[in-house]
Amino acid sequence: MMHKTISLADQIFERLESDILTGVYPIGSVLTELSLSEDLGVSRTPIREAVRRLEQEHLVEPSSKGVVVLSITPHDAMIIYDIRIQVEGLAARACAENITDEQLAEMKELLELQEFYIKKADSEKIKNTDSQFHQMIYQFAGSPVYYDTLAPLHNKTQKFRKASVARSGKAVNSHQEHHDIYRAIAARDPDAAELAMKRHVEEAKKRLAELAEI
Amino acid sequence: MMHKTISLADQIFERLESDILTGVYPIGSVLTELSLSEDLGVSRTPIREAVRRLEQEHLVEPSSKGVVVLSITPHDAMIIYDIRIQVEGLAARACAENITDEQLAEMKELLELQEFYIKKADSEKIKNTDSQFHQMIYQFAGSPVYYDTLAPLHNKTQKFRKASVARSGKAVNSHQEHHDIYRAIAARDPDAAELAMKRHVEEAKKRLAELAEI
DNA sequence: TCATGGATATATGCATACAATTATACTCGC
DNA sequence: GCGAGTATAATTGTATGCATATATCCATGA
Q: Does the residue B168 lie in any domain?
């Protein structure tokens, strides 16, 4: 009997990550292992493990007392986008070269789901599917190096992106760009995939820059 | 009194990381928390923490029993270089825009030191200064994003690079390229800096590819 | 002989207890 | 009233114990 049991540490990490990115724990707030373990009703052990992972992803930073929730400056966000433009371009290219039919089908399904949420103007779900699309690219690119490099960068821009996608018109643009990327990958055209991805991340950067009035 | 006390978990992580990268624990070998705690004479708690970090860096992989030591495939190494070509290019550009005079002086000093070691053919020191030069670029680029992204990638290619630099002739090439980068940064010429860095990492990739007979 | 099932050993996941460090608050002396 | 020094509290680091899941080995039966 293959009972898939997810460890408490993993669950807590995901919850804390999400709560930080969505602002439940505001920037600058302090988290201690003890208070978290009381809040979440578990011992410090799995909390510690989760917090260590948050540290590695630079979502929190050790301080004299506990860890403090970090933010990124608009400047950092712009740099992250510059890096993503280049590296996600490479990842999309690798995807076009390596993706399997099953993975392609999965990707298509996700795009259809996103279309559905766009029609319903459910910005929270739109944001989620958006993230999932990019993470699929990272995972289907054929080397864990892509995911390891890009996932933390992507995470760090989440809260900026949230505001960006909330404007429904922009979400449609983004979805169209995703579809362009998908088509290039489905056609196994690395050049087109890289170009489409680079354009997409560049547009995302522009949308953010406008919004943040940088 | 500022007594810097390094946690056991940190020490163990560094030791295990080094031992894996240098082959003390060969690829495919299995490590269990219990055996490690007995070997190193500490409890499982700091071992666990270190092993989790190794997992995140993909140096080991969970298996049915303990974790298995992974290797970086030559394919992954090539991908890492492709990413570094792009991102270190951006970092060098940012460096040229942001570096202070003091930092510049520090960089120059390091290059002179490297020249000294090259004359002495001390390949270990050459390797060290080489790493330091790149890490300086990451640090002087004006945003922690560069360091966070590039340092892990740089680390992962260390053992390949070691073999590469051991060939003294190549080390001289590499040093010349470093000097080109330095000159462009010193001249505050972002375009030249980016170009020089990209060329340098490309050459490093080629040197490795030849050596690894990929 | 080989498959099957259960006992045993081994591993991890989590909780808890303790030690040690660091921050905080308080008191005493000036 | 204010600063220094000390006591106290809070927090992390580490060890240990227990529960649970999994693998291994052995015995038993067809």
A: yes
Tell me how many domains chain A contains.
Answer: 2
Strand C proximal to B65 Cβ, under 7 A: yes
- Tell me how far apart the alpha carbons of residues A200 and A88 are, in angstroms, rounded to a whole number: 10
CA distance B6 to B19: 19
User: Binning pLDDT at 50, 70 and 90, where does residue A170 land?
Assistant: low
**Are A193 and A125 found together in one domain?**
yes
Cα-Cα-Cα-Cα torsion A88, A114, A207, A155, nearest 10 degrees, comes to -50
Comparing CB atoms, the residue among A75, A145, A148 nearest residue B143 is A75
Q: Is the pTM of this model over 0.90?
A: no
Domain holding A53: CATH number? 1.10.10.10
Does one domain contain both B122 and B49?
no
Q: Which domain holds residue B45?
A: 8-69
Residue pLDDT, tens place only, B40-86: 999 999 999 999 999 988 889 999 889 999 878 889 999 999 999 99
Interchain CB contact of B168 with A (< 8 Å) = no
Closest-CA distance of chain B to residue A75, Å:
8
A13 and A50 both lie in a single domain:
yes
CA B50-B54-B55 angle, to 5 degrees, is 115
B153 touches chain A (CB under 8 A): yes
